[in-house]
Amino acid sequence: MFGLDGLLTVAREVDYLIVAVPLTPETREVVGAEVISAMKATAFLLNLARGPVVDEKALIQALESGTIAGAGLDVFNEEPLPQGHPFWKMKNVIVTPHVGGTSTFYGSQALPIFRENLRRYLKGERHTLINVVDH
Hints:
Helix content is 28%, strand content 11%. By secondary structure, it is α/β, with parallel strands linked by helices.
């Protein structure tokens, strides 16, 4: 796992660049043309975060030109993905709904966190909520 400061370095070396960050002003299009073009021609980009984290135009260009081998995407700049979008026709792109990470364990893991956060919120303990993303 690497932070934003190591993104360009790691992009040059990995076979699969998996993007899993919250959408914040700092992460908007953080995977842009520079990062994508640094990837190996045999590499795949997997965006599990939010669509705007990746520069879609740069990604489309890289996929069409063979700069990278492919992409697996379950988030997009516009959701649902419009019918005529280029991703639908690309043989090197896998498009899934934003439930690709769903598992039979999700509910049993998420529900206790939700319950505890609700308890804290109702008691006025908003400053102690669990798993808060500060954007």
